[in-house]
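User: I'll paste a sequence; please echo it back and then give the predicted structure.

Assistant: Echoing your sequence first, then the prediction.
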Amino acid sequence: MARRLAELAKTIDHTLLDRDASDEVIARLCDEAREHHFASVCVLPGSVAVAVECLRGCDVKVTGVVGYPQGADEPRAKLADAEHCVADGSHELEVVMNTEAMLAGDFRLVRDELAAIAHAVGMHSVNTGRGQTLVDPESIRPALWF
């Protein structure tokens, strides 16, 4: 039974996407994730550094969430947030697709934005020698359908 619980815990992303969350609240989120051995904590770019520090040396990853909530940020802003997350030590990125553009049929904007983020993050990760940062494929796959 314990093995099943451990396997289940590694499928959970403990998430807090509150722009007003204090460092203490982020630390508590990380403590909970560490205690239960969750897969990751998902936080906004401004909280990545705190989460990385709180989780240093444990098996819980940090995922930076870019473009929350609707992905409608300017592409340059999303790219800057993604680079900020990687520079602060994020292991993964969750990129919120620009749903307004997708629904309006502007598939090229969606594809190009996500491809630029994936490329920039990949280059930054390789150039700094820290290995690849995972960009959530669920965020990219819909853009590649078109």
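The beta strands are 13-16, 40-43, 61-66, 92-95, 134-135. The first helix runs from residue 2 to 9.
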